[in-house]
Amino acid sequence: MKYLIALAARSAWNRRATLSLVVVSIALSVTLLLGVERLRNDVRESFAQSVSGTDLVVGARGSPLQLMLYTVFHMGEATNNMDWSSVRKLTAHPAVDWVIPLSLGDSHHGYPVLATDQAYFDHFRYGDRQTLRLAQGRRFSAIFDAVLGAEVAEHLGYRLGERITLAHGSGELKLNEHADKPFTVVGILARTGTPVDRTVHIGLAAMEAIHLDWQGGAPIPGMSIPEQYVSRFDLTPKNVTGVLLGLKSRAAVFAMQRYVGNFRDEPLMAVLPGVALAQLWQLLSVGEQALLAVSALVVAVGLAGLVAVVLAGLSERRRELAILRSVGAGPRHVLALLTLEGLALTLTGSALGLILLTGLTLGLAPWLESRYGLYIHAGNLSAEEIKLLAWVIGVGCLASLLPGLRAYRLSLAVGLTPRV
Amino acid sequence: MSTAPVIALDAVVYAWPGHAPCLDIPGFAMQPGERVFLHGPSGSGKSTLLNLVGGVLTPRSGQARVMGEDLGRLGSSARDRLRADHIGFIFQQFNLIPYLSAIDNVLLPCRFSALRRERTRPDGLHAAAERLLQHLDLEPALWRKAATELSVGQQQRVAAARALIGRPGIVVADEPTSALDEGRQLAFLDLLRKECDSAGAALLFVSHDRRLASHFEREIALAGINRAAATIVDPHAHVRSLPPKGVPVSLEAARRETG
Predict the structure, then answer these.
(1) Which of helix, strand or coil describes residue B199?
(2) Which residue in the set B109, B111, B246 is minimally distant from A419, CB to CB?
(3) B68, B1 in Cβ contact below 8 A?
(4) Is A322 helix (H, G, I), strand (E, B) or coil?
(5) A292, A36 in Cβ contact below 8 A?
(6) Does residue B2 form part of some domain?
(7) CB-CB: which of A326, A330, A333 is closest to B89?
(8) Is residue B1 part of a domain?
(9) Do A329 and B113 touch (CB under 8 A)?
(10) What is the pTM of this model?
(11) Which CATH number does the domain housing residue B133 bear?
(12) Which domain holds residue B236?
């Protein structure tokens, strides 16, 4: 058996030009399959890690998923605002422990700007119920103070004391800048691996202040309020995008949800983050399954290529097989020789695919992180990935039996005297 | 060494499934150390005979014994082992595995036969192979070269060394000289005979070229001993270009000629 392995290896090495193409195609298909699986898992992980300890997300009535995506992940389209008076009433509710108001809409170099208050630093939790930590500086306190997420500071190279201006909306139009009211960076948060890293945080009053001389998404012509005068105005927010609610007891969560749903002043809704995320996975699962099915097909194509190449090579190897037969190899040796070759090609391809996958994740991780806020891990295989890999190798092993069996039959028919 | 025949065919008949018999040999025997020239033009059932002796095929009826073992009573892997242990084959051309060196080609039978490995014991595997290559006039510079880098004549000598390593009882040579030019044919034949003698191996030399027959103790025409081929003797069979010569195909041809 040991000699057969050596023989198979040397035979394969002799045909390396053709076989390396097969190995590459298997490697690419394995990279695709595991890559899709890893992306799928890590995306879920990223989402699930982004918010914890929040019992309810409250906002204007509409799509629960949209509210969740917009307020927590700063993705998708803006929802309707809710009135500040409603926020006050919620805060006063006896079952409520804390309230984090969130106001979105502006941006800085493509990074979303979140206006909130001190409760955000006190009560917001992510991952395994971790609180936000300042890596440098302090929380915002003056009106035009800003606290940056780790990714924003790192990517834009900002330090404490930096003066930055915010853009209205997502910031594609240079015209809509709040250039007259620059902010000062007073704090930089420690990295969290969540959308917080990609967010610029300011106070609710600041959000109000930069929009004093704006109306309907554009500056009011001929009206300009210099920054030193803004404090003369009432900077209490009129409305916010949504709030995160923490309850004194989780048991009250459904009662609270009902209370919000029946709110009399305006149509509101309360969303359980876990339920909204489950809804999201359900929405995505069809796409995920399709993607996984396509990558599985690509693997099948790769393995079919393997079978085709090994089978095609067989007719040129009739003489080789006859020689082996003449020195005493049995048909089962011939079967083993061909099957081992296919298996070795599958294993080499899979190993190469894993290396490629690791290289790709290492190479693309920073880009995915800064561009999409996704955290893709390189290195250790998950149980699911190992299962997929085992499938590929198992199917490869079965597929390799095809040329093996063909050679078996050939060696019985041709015997010691193949055609020259 | 025992005096029982190394090969003994007794009323052996072989037919491919669904075909008329292509081989029908009432009797044929080879003694230990004997050198037999078997004149076998194409279509005389030569391939079938070689596959029978090698234990790849088993007779439809009758008894085929190799080294005293009745092939019909052995399973296929026992026949494979018998072939590995006791028979060395040399073919017409392309005898070597292209991706192995000359010496690794010589050592091939020892990979499949513990007995032949055992018989190289006093020298050791590589020493035995090297000694054979030396005896067959292959210079040491060529030993580690890939089979494909050798000339046809050198390849045939490597094949002879492979057939002889581990001193098998029988060497079967199927047209081993027909790819060589005339001058080298006799030289190769001499070397082969000498080495078979020193190994104590019987030599079954199959050829269509009867000029070589005088170098052998005994000459047998396959057409003469094969009743199924008696009517198909065709002196020009070897010059005619036949269709691709896989076993079944050549048998088809044989059948066509038998009518």
Answers:
(1) helix
(2) B246
(3) no
(4) helix
(5) yes
(6) no
(7) A326
(8) no
(9) no
(10) 0.75
(11) 3.40.50.300
(12) 7-258
